[in-house]
Design a protein that fits this description.
The complex is a heterodimer of chains A (114) and B (113).
Chain A (H helix, E strand, L loop, with lengths): L2 E3 L4 E5 L4 E3 L2 E3 L5 E8 L6 E7 L6 E3 L2 E6 L4 E6 L8 E9 L6 E2 L3 E6 L1
Chain B lengths: L3 E4 L2 E4 L5 E7 L5 E7 L5 E9 L2 E4 L6 E3 L9 E3 L8 E8 L8 E2 L3 E5 L1
Parallel strand pairs in B: 2-11
Antiparallel strand pairs in B: 1-3, 3-8, 4-5, 4-9, 5-6, 7-8, 9-10, 9-11
Classes of the chains: A mainly beta (114), B mainly beta (113).
């Protein structure tokens, strides 16, 4: 069975601080993909990144960066110089093997205070 | 603009009533999904469909039914057998293979009167 754990239920930081959201996963599949989605107050999930299990290179996109480490089964997400607009719930998700459908973590509610 | 639409935005259900949530996509995606989100919880898979006229149960299919008569449409019916239907329902679709990115609609919030 697959599992995604986001241990941080809620994080609150002051604007311009850096913040890291943790994601730990469990899977027996050798081929799998990991995702991060953002859910603003409107409710719609916004896709941020997709990373396959064979690519452990870190990725940077503007103020966002992702650190994938297979040795620790983690796929952490860092926002640099946070802004109020980053306030949202962030979900980490996994799909692997022959299964269809994403397995989600419970999400981390990020609050950026001005 | 290509995208996924869900209607209505809010839906109220009376006891013993079946209600249907609409999901339409014009992305020409083959696969479509329904997820349920409860407060403080992640999303859980209800049903999915990889091709027209075929669909599969997800982790929490009891009390729900779906149909896939057209590629662009995947309606979800919440039946009276679903005893705790109050939740946020999200529809998604994807192109290509199973592990491609899923894109989500704006969601429908279902409340019980």
């Amino acid at each position: 069975a697959q599992k995604v754990t986001q241990a941080q239920t809620e994080i609150s930081v002051v604007e311009k601080e850096d913040v890291t959201l943790d994601c730990v996963y469990e899977t027996r599949d050798t081929t799998y993909y990991l995702f991060w989605y953002k859910q603003p107050p409107s409710g719609e999930l916004v896709f941020l990144i997709r990373r396959n299990s064979f690519d452990e290179q870190n990725e940077i996109s503007g103020r966002y960066s992702w650190n994938f480490q297979k040795s620790t089964s983690s796929f952490n997400f860092t926002i640099t110089a946070s802004q109020v607009v980053d306030s949202a719930v962030y979900f980490c998700a996994l799909v692997g093997g022959g299964a269809d459908g994403l397995t989600f973590g419970k999400g981390t509610h990020l609050i950026i205070q001005p | 603009d290509g995208g996924i639409t869900q209607s209505p935005k809010y839906l109220f259900r009376k006891e013993g009533q079946n209600v249907t949530l609409s999901c339409e996509q014009n992305l020409n995606h083959d696969a479509m999904y329904w997820y349920r989100q409860d407060p403080g919880q992640g999303l859980r898979l209800i049903y999915y469909s990889q091709i027209v006229n075929d669909f599969q149960k997800g982790d929490i299919a009891e009390g729900y039914s779906v149909s896939r008569e057209k590629k662009e449409s995947f309606p979800l019916t919440v039946t009276s057998a679903q005893k705790n239907p109050t939740a946020f329902y999200l529809c998604a679709s994807r192109a290509g293979l199973t592990m491609e990115t899923q894109y989500f609609g704006p969601g429908t919030r279902l409340l019980v009167l």
